[in-house]
């Protein structure tokens, strides 16, 4: 009886969660090809204005890596109507905040303002798109900023080149093979004309989605959008035809060295499908099962019980064209990296050969329900999700329906996906070492 009541309560809660979390929105296209998404929520006097551009590190010339990330910085320099250095002053003096970020697939800019400043946010983003000032002084200034960021986050950071070394072995043809921050010599060698050409090609309305979310009057905002963004001319259509990777058919063994670390690490990485593929969702659940929290399978076994690792984990790096599934461990004491990977492999084989317990499965479902609730709990989070689902997945309504994909995943799905992708002959095993010597 208790079990039945619990099951009934769980079903009611799931239904309530789905209804309570529904994000209402309206979307349409301007004549110049810019996609617009509006989400009205008048519960707090706050608005987020954001623009996501479909340009990331993968769109770069292999001899000019780092351009997409560079533009994330460069386009705060100023416009024809916003003097150089005034962007952040305007935002902060009007009670707002702003930021931007870049991945291999897209670049995202946003402002959060009191809702009576929604027009200011729209004007500023239209200025960034229509009237950017790209000159030598801005390029030189941001070049130094990016170099300092690379020194801080990559060159002088422990394990800062970890993912860089995974990518270059996992991808031989596709542009995911280089880093988002790029090579500094490429930026140094670039001409002003090359930066201007990159802007002209990718920063066009038909390569962007504008999201306005929060305390808005929809008819008023629509008029503002038409006034500020409507006159911006459509750009040339962007075609992408990236080379396909050959399948990995035998284990790749590699070493990398990092002067900033004292404890080595071992990585097992597998190439996986696009984030849009249902299998990518299954891999998300699998990584959570293996390594999310201290009660997870890998942590419990290798850190708590066997005391072989200081840290161990699994994560699914899903991207628009491919994904990379990564298992890693940092050994404790004199534990060999080969022994650590052997222990991790044992847990993968278990998942491939046995269904996870019903209890663990229900725990996973609860965790993903919680993530779903949290992802839609703020206006800025909703704005980001609306832009991402439209641009990278081609389905804006995933903001409401994605949880149904996770709910539909079975224990059998997890077993089959683990068998399909996590095979020793389809992976990279990378030893990440403190100095140039074998760790065996």
UniProtKB/TrEMBL annotation:
Q: Per its UniProt record, what InterPro entries does this chain match?
A: Metalloenz_LuxS/M16, Pept_M16_N, Peptidase_M16, Peptidase_M16_C
Where in the numbering of this chain does the Peptidase M16 C-terminal domain appear? Answer: 190-367
Q: Which PANTHER family match?
A: NARDILYSIN, PROTEIN YHJJ
Where is the Peptidase M16 N-terminal domain positioned along the sequence? 36-180
This protein's source sits in the domain of life called Bacteria
Signal peptide residues are: 1-20
Could you cite one Gene Ontology molecular function of this protein? metallopeptidase activity
Q: What is the lineage of its organism?
A: Bacteria, Pseudomonadati, Bacteroidota, Flavobacteriia, Flavobacteriales
Q: What is the similarity comment for this entry? A: Belongs to the peptidase M16 family.
Which Pfam families would you find in this protein's record?
Peptidase_M16, Peptidase_M16_C
This one is known as Insulinase family protein
Q: Per the UniProt entry, what are the Gene Ontology biological process annotations, in alphabetical order?
A: proteolysis
Record bears the keyword Signal: yes
């Amino acid at each position: 009886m208790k079990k039945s009541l619990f099951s009934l309560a769980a079903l009611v809660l799931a239904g309530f969660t789905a209804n309570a979390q529904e994000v209402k929105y309206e979307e349409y296209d301007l004549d110049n090809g810019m996609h617009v998404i509006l989400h009205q929520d008048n519960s707090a006097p706050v608005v987020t204005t954001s623009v996501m551009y479909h340009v990331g590190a993968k769109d770069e010339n292999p001899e000019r890596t780092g351009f997409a990330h560079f533009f994330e910085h460069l386009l705060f320099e100023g416009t024809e109507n916003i003097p150089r250095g005034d962007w952040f002053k305007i935002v902060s003096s009007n009670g707002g905040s702003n930021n931007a970020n870049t991945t291999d697939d897209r670049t995202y800019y946003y402002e959060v303002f009191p809702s009576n400043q929604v027009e200011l946010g729209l004007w500023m983003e239209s200025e960034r798109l229509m009237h950017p000032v790209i000159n030598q002084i801005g390029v030189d200034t941001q070049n130094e900023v990016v170099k300092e960021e690379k020194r801080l986050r990559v060159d002088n950071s422990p394990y800062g080149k970890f993912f860089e070394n995974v990518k270059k072995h996992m991808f031989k043809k596709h542009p995911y093979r280089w880093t988002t921050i790029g090579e500094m010599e490429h930026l140094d060698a670039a001409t002003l004309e090359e930066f201007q050409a990159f802007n002209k090609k990718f920063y066009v309305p038909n390569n962007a989605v504008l999201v306005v979310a929060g305390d808005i009057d929809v008819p008023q905002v629509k008029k503002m959008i038409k006034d500020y963004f409507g006159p911006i001319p459509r750009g040339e259509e962007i075609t992408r035809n990236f080379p396909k990777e050959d399948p990995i058919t035998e284990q790749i063994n590699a070493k990398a060295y990092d002067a900033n670390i004292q404890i080595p690490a071992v990585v097992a990485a597998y190439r996986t499908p696009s984030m849009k593929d249902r299998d990518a969702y299954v891999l998300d659940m699998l990584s959570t099962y293996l390594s999310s929290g201290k009660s997870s399978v890998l942590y419990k076994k290798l850190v708590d019980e066997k005391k072989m690792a200081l840290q161990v984990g699994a994560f699914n790096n899903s991207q628009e064209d491919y994904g990379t599934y990564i298992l890693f461990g940092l050994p404790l004491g004199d534990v060999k990296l080969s022994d650590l990977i052997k222990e991790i492999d044992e847990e993968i084989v278990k998942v491939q050969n046995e269904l996870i317990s019903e209890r663990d499965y229900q725990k996973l479902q609860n965790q993903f329900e919680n993530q779903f609730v949290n992802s839609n709990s703020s206006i800025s989070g909703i704005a980001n999700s609306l832009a991402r689902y439209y641009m990278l997945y081609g389905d804006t309504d995933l903001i409401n329906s994605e949880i149904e994909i996770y709910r539909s995943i079975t224990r059998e799905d997890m077993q089959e996906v683990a068998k399909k992708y996590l095979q020793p002959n389809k992976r990279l095993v990378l030893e990440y070492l403190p100095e140039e010597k074998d760790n065996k």
